Amino acid sequence: MMGMGINLFLLLAGIIITQLKDEKRLTVDNAQQGMMVGTIIKQPKAGDKTIKTVLEIEAINKNGNWISTSGNMVLYFRKDSVNPPILALGDRLIFDVDVQTPLAAKNPHEFDYKNYLAYHLITKQAFLRAGEWQKISNDIPTTNISLWASEIQQKVVNIFRQAHLSPDNFSIISALTVGYKDLLSAETRQSFSQTGAMHVLAVSGLHVGIIYLVLNYLLSFFFKKKRRWIKTVLILIVLWAYALITGFSPSVLRASVMFSFIVIGQYMNRPKNIYNTIAASAFLLLLFNPYNLIEIGFWLSYLAVLGIIFLHPKIYGLLYFGKSFLGKLADKIWSLIAVSIAAQLTTLPITLYFFHQFPNYFILTNLFVIPLVSIIVYVAMFLLMVSPIPVIFDFVAMILNHILSFMLGGIRWIQALPFAFNQEIFISKYQMGLLYLIILSFILILLWRKSIPVFGFLVFLLIFLGTMIQNEFSTQKQRRIIVYAINRETAYNFIDGKDNLFFSSLSGNEKKLNYHVKNNWLALGLNNEKLLDIRKMDDSHFFRNYLVIQNPHFFMKHNFIGFYDKKIVVFNQDYKIDKRTITDKKLKVNYVLLSENAKVDIQAILRLFDFKKIIIDASNSRYKIAKWKEACLSAGINFYITPEQGAYDEILTRIIHKNH
């Protein structure tokens, strides 16, 4: 009965804490908008056209009255080639602009940025041009711990900047030591990700453990009975100061809490249960922020550490190499391999589900990287300590630069090996659950060596294989037409089994393609897309396009498309209605697609075509969309607007009309 009461209390406490967190969101509607004042609490990050940061709002001016408020919002500052904005952490700004709600995902399986921000208690954003904002004096001392942490983090990053490391090495050491990843290039991220080394760039228990070992050794002179408390306090202060500098990431918080329990337990001479320590750290993190529960990093961190603690001894115990020098060396290598396998087993399903790739040489990568990371952290710590002494600082910086270059070179060598990684892997939530049941059954087989877990393993494996066969069968039979909702772009898809014809204005824009479209292709089992540029659909490119398309069920001539029994006419900037072609006999089509602000009015379309629906895509201006929408409503025409309703996705046996 008491246990039920405790569980009920914890459930209610969780609900209350979540509600209190939700109250910290900035809630501003159109009627409340006015001049705002706030402080930059996240290091500004420069993009191609904008500079992005997060502002903590202090007050809103409405009708001449300042109203105190709280909450964070994302700000985008448009770059000016003449006078680019100069922004820094802690800058206090005043601005007056329309505040917007971030847009939800509008394409199937697209990353939902609106939900992502909401989980981080951000529900508003704004775009600012030069002249719409200005800095004001910041004479109010801040109480924002995150801002203090970011400022300290930037001071450490600036010390590394003074070391004159190569750009890649500077970005790696900033990420590896204090968790500042904004400087990492896409190429570097890809190299670490595809080789299975991305975890070293996420400051984690490995880094906290190194700091703990160094402190424990350096402060060993305090180990006398009467002065042990000094050592304990100093270690705790440094561990949590490091957690503060790294921005309180879940992995560092988890490690800091765990090592805090270990340090306190040692001081009190109390036996420690590592699983209780892990559970306590998770409880404290969720108490601090319940939304950690939906953070991928939170799950990966805890699954990895549980895998290492529970599985490592079992895997490590499978082999014995003797007590000779070579035997001991082999034993150390095998122990490191066992750690890698243990962590990979418990994180594999969730990694495949979210990241769609698997590094085949993760064991080789970890054997190479983990010892180097330990050395790099030690050297980086020493570099920070000698930063006031230029001669020593420059010498240590040179050594650090060579070690980082060696590590990055090794990672890129592994990345370049044949079959280094599998990518474009898609599994459903159901399949992710089945993979965990398969792994759990396998672990139980190793532990119990009885028939029940073997039976469970085979059953779950057969079900998983059955789902893969079913997915393959469904993929072969699928027939779809998709018109995507991509801002200022035209993109439409014709899918015939595994044949994937994609017409778009995205030629050369890999970033947009990956963000808006690629995940949907993975979910539909497609990996050999045929990309066609809508700007090159004229007669001069006919032969090339014919060779690319090669589908007997697809026909295209000028702006007319046939796909199975569906007929579509596309109006864009190149296609205009010739009034001389208008006759009493209308041309029958299923859909009229309006894109690129086509110079056509709805009445002209009605006179020329007999159609079922007009589809208006996201390449059109708001003015054009509003004008066409009004005309369709007046004429009683069935229409679909992708920027408002999301991608238009039709299965050729039934039609889906819904937001994605």
Tell me what the structure shows.
The protein has 20 helices and 24 strands. It is of the alpha+beta class. Helix content is 50%, strand content 17%. Helix 5 crosses helix 13. The strands form 5 sheets. Strands 1, 2, 3, 4, 5, 6, 7 and 8 form an 8-stranded mixed sheet that branches. A 6-stranded mixed sheet has the order 14-13-12-11-23-24, with helices on one face.
Characteristics of this structure?
6-stranded mixed beta sheet, globular, OB fold (Dihydrolipoamide Acetyltransferase, E2P), disordered C terminus, 8-stranded mixed beta sheet, 20 helices, 660 residues, alpha+beta
Tally the beta strands: 24
Low-confidence stretches: 655-660
Q: Number of folding domains?
A: 5
Cα distance spanning the termini: 45 Å
- Approximate shape: globular
Structural class: alpha+beta
Q: Report the average pLDDT across residues.
A: 84
Tell me briefly what this model is.
This protein has 660 residues and is of the alpha+beta class.
Set down the secondary structure blueprint.
Elements: H1 2-22, E1 35-40, E2 45-46, E3 50-62, E4 65-68, E5 72-78, E6 92-95, H2 113-119, E7 122-128, E8 133-136, H3 145-162, H4 167-178, H5 186-195, H6 205-218, H7 228-245, H8 250-268, H9 274-288, H10 296-316, H11 325-355, E9 357-359, H12 362-385, H13 390-415, E10 421-423, H14 429-448, H15 451-477, E11 479-483, E12 491-496, E13 499-504, H16 510-523, E14 529-533, H17 542-549, E15 554-557, E16 560-563, E17 566-571, E18 587-588, E19 591-594, H18 602-608, E20 609-610, E21 613-616, H19 622-635, E22 639-641, H20 642-645, E23 648-651, E24 654-656
Parallel strand pairs: 5-7, 13-14, 17-19, 18-20, 19-21, 21-22
Antiparallel strand pairs: 1-3, 1-6, 2-3, 3-4, 3-5, 6-8, 9-10, 11-12, 11-23, 12-13, 15-16, 16-17, 23-24
